[in-house]
Amino acid sequence: MVDFLLTFVTIPEVWAEQGDILISDNFNDGNLDGWTIQSGNWYINNGNLAGSQSGTMLGGRINTGNSQWDNYQIDLDINGFQGIDGGVGFRYENNGNWYELNLRYGTGIANTPELALWKFQNGIPAKIANTHSFPLINDRWYHTKIEVQNENIKVPKTFKRRVD
Description:
The protein has 164 residues and is mostly beta strands. The protein has no helices and 15 strands.
């Protein structure tokens, strides 16, 4: 299952190990068919998935996919247009167990900017790795890929700035 937090996302694709596309959505149809809103306000904006905070601590969550997925990669463009933390969750088992790549935008306050990999087990978060070497700039598109292969997880230490 793939999960997104508060951000603009365009054309997320999830690929199986064999190269089969598990899900791809360019949002040009203007609807969120196949997506489940858990919290927050989610909508389509110019072919992008967009979310805004709903006042809860976790802000907003939307997901798609299947918790039975095993080995796959997530390929997407992401834009923190409001400077609010964003994230991509994966290896989702249930509401208490999943992994998340968290993108923390900011100016150095509260340990930002930061890319952090979290593991949630029984609802308790544990930071596995993080980096402060890459500044995330508000309202800028970045491209990233997350790979999950058996017990191995590859996440970027930096993102590629998307060139339009």
